[in-house]
Design a protein that fits this description.
By secondary structure, this protein is an alpha/beta fold. The chain has two domains: 2-109, Enolase-like, domain 1 (2-Layer Sandwich), CATH 3.30.390.10; 114-324, Enolase-like C-terminal domain (TIM Barrel, Alpha-Beta Barrel), CATH 3.20.20. It contains twelve helices and 13 strands. The strands form three sheets. Strands 4-5-6-7-8-9-10-11 form an eight-stranded parallel beta sheet. It has a three-stranded antiparallel beta sheet with strand order 1-2-3. The longest helix has 19 residues, at 90-108. The relative contact order is 0.16. The chain binds magnesium ion.
């Protein structure tokens, strides 16, 4: 079994601005694990605010003893091993987990969605995210999301109503809203929830700070729109803490350290009566197909990574009626012909 990787810089179509920061590209680590003539593809998307980098990923990978990964893979034991190497580092752990899932599917000649028990017919539509911007650029961005059935809007910089009014002037599509911890006042946040409800907003992500369960729970109890924990919910252990604080959780492979733990989080959330949104960072087709394999088990999907970038090194997966289409190929179903050069 052989692991190779290369750093990659994924360019965004537009500078991406949310409540806390702005950026134009995202560092990735593209990874492959080869075994018995098959290649499993993985990817780490290391958005800067999560604290990982090409350097930290390289350092982590240098400590991984690849021959330990024996097929058929025991993903629970593998994530435990990766966590013992170092805490944190969820994105590079996800890259390994995704590559091994792709490999497992190829060796078993089964698609990953099938291995994980997903029903492709239950695939939710994927939202198309527009960051905070000037009205002119916002209008342009919404037009570029043509083909999507839901728009996700980033709020939290003080001009929230103006932003929604601008979006509403160009589209009647349902909206998801992400406040990215940008709200600070209870009364104002509840007013906003009612105002947004009247404008067909279907969910709100992370209104208050992730460290503030009281205000988030207060709003969840009163809001006519489901409140979803994102920054507050990283790995499996956080799911239980979300109960009573949020209506649901946002699961992302780059937070959960991969597909195995994301799947456990989805099942645990359902058991606790929490809704599930499956989301992404800036990602290529690789990590997006990995999340799409789990998306049919979720209530909503926000998997627009490849739709927002200009240099995806892989073929674009099929996207139809606002949804990713899961194919019957073994593993992730990724067309990776040009990925590693
Ligand atoms: Mg979010």
């Amino acid at each position: 079994m052989r692991l190779t990787y290369r750093p990659f810089e994924l360019e965004l179509n537009h500078p991406f601005t949310i409540a806390k920061f702005s950026r134009t590209s995202t560092p990735l680590m593209l990874l492959q694990i080869e075994h018995e003539g098959h290649i499993g593809y993985g990817e780490a998307s290391m958005v800067p605010y999560m604290g990982e980098s090409h350097q930290s990923a390289t350092q982590f990978l240098s400590k991984v003893d690849v021959p330990r990964f024996k097929y058929p893979f025991d993903f629970g034991a593998i994530i435990q091993y990766l966590d013992e190497i170092a805490p944190g580092n969820p994105a590079i752990k996800a890259a390994i987990d995704i590559a091994l899932h792709d490999l497992e599917g190829k060796l078993k000649q089964q698609p990953c969605w099938q291995l994980l028990g997903s029903d492709p017919a239950k695939m939710p539509v994927t939202s198309y995210t527009v960051g905070i911007d000037t009205p002119e650029v916002l209008v342009e961005k919404v037009k570029q999301g043509d083909g999507c059935k839901v728009i996700k809007v980033k709020l939290g910089r003080g001009s929230d109503k103006e932003l929604i009014n601008t979006i509403r002037s160009v589209t009647n599509l349902p909206l998801y809203v992400d406040a990215n911890q940008g709200w600070t006042d209870r009364a104002h946040s509840l007013d906003m929830c009612h105002w947004l409800h009247e404008r067909d907003v279907k969910l709100i992500e992370q209104p208050f700070a992730k460290t503030d369960p009281d205000d988030n729970a207060w709003l969840t109890e009163r809001s006519p729109i489901p409140i979803i924990g994102d920054e507050a919910v990283q790995r499996f252990g956080d799911v239980e803490k979300a109960k009573g604080v949020y209506s649901g959780i946002n699961v992302k492979l780059m937070k959960s350290a991969g597909m195995y733990e994301a799947h456990r989080m989805i099942l645990k959330a359902k058991e606790l009566g929490l809704k599930v949104l499956i989301g992404c960072m800036s990602e290529t087709s690789c990590a997006t197909l990995a999340a799409a394999a789990l998306a049919p088990q979720c209530d909503w999907a926000d998997l627009d990574g490849p739709l927002l970038v200009s240099n995806n090194p892989y073929q674009m997966p099929e996207f139809k009626d606002g949804k990713w289409v899961l194919n019957d190929r073994s593993g992730l179903g990724l067309d990776a012909g040009i990925a590693m050069g």
